Fold this sequence. Notes:
single chain, 443 residues, alpha+beta, Acetylcholine Binding Protein, Chain: A, seven-stranded mixed β-sheet, four-stranded antiparallel β-sheet, 23% strand
Amino acid sequence: PALRRLSHHLLAHYQKDTRPVRDWRTTTTVAIDLMVYAILSVDEKNQVLTTYIWYRQHWTDEFLQWDPARFDNLTQISLPAESIWVPDILINEFVDVGRSPRVPYVYVSHHGEVQNLKPIQVMTACSLDIYNFPFDVQNCSLTFTSWLHHIHDINLSLWRQPDLVKFDRSVFMNQGEWELLYVLTHFQEFRVKSSDSYAEMKFYVVIRRRPLFYTVSLLLPSIFLMVMDIVGFYLPPNSGERVSFKITLLLGYSVFLIIVSDTLPATAVGTPLIGIYFVVCMALLVISLTETILIVRLVHKQDLQPHVPHWVKHLLLERAPVLLCIRDKKKFSQSRPQSSDISRQVENTDSTANLNPYSCEDPRECEVVGGTRPPGEGSPLAHGLLREVTAIHQFLEKREEFRDVAHEWLQVGYVLDILLFRAYLLAVLAYTITLGTLWSVWR
Length: 443
């Protein structure tokens, strides 16, 4: 009975259409507070942040006061929110009506203090910066203000101290993708041209993405493919396996980018740094494949190539092994004139011995065979034999010359391959260190 009598007493002659003050010059101060319960979604493409907050506000209603002694010492009562005056406090960044549960009642104390507590699913516009993805920190504001009343009618204040609001994670769900760092508060007066001032209370919700999932699913596979590309340089350049190996890596990286394209955030404003990282890695793989094709082309089909120029020999076969600290520098700086001359003499002797049917290793064998003597030097048979021997000798010299040219180009190819590999390795290391430093600073 006391609750019913009190409710009838308060609402019998209550006018909810006007601001509840006895003197119109009195400003109604609304104290507001919020606690972040969960980060539901972050839509980078549409620049929308969806959060779930516990919102609280209280103000003084001068027409909702009573003496507790008259009503069985009741000091607090719940009344329907539709039956009393409620301030028009809205969030400026609202872009859509969320699925917020409806709380139909408010608490009223005997001093006239009204407490309106309700959970709200907030879908707000936010300027999301994804350049540092997946190590990004987002700062989104929730601006509470009266849409109609200026600051002389409705003023805003904080329910709690700013330090208590800043580090309050008592109700935050901490198992999602985003981590709540802190909530900053700021009060300001807002004026549009020559109109009256409006009170605004800003809450800056600062959140940070947990990068473990993206590190495992995006960065590590890319790093593994780049490591395999570097290891592929240890395949011999004169074998055709290196080209097919690097083409396979390039195709695998292309498939990897197609798979992860849906995971990367997409905006019309900018591109995340990790997207640039993937593009540069693809470019490095293309450069590596191009270098491999050039080296393989250099060390193959040397028969159609001229002699190695002297400046190339000087730079790549004499200077480069010293600068690159190649241990077996002798094999790059020496040619094979002595070995080639010896092989020429051996081959010429063997070929001459095989072609001359009258030559014998032991003179007594010749006497036993027939006692005949070799034909004279001026006979046609001797001239024919000499022409054949000369042709074989020229052929062997030409073949040995081709071998020397091929050997020189092969040496040039090996030295150039080592030089380009180390330059490529330095570029990859510098790129990795730069990205690691930037991400560690942002982290």
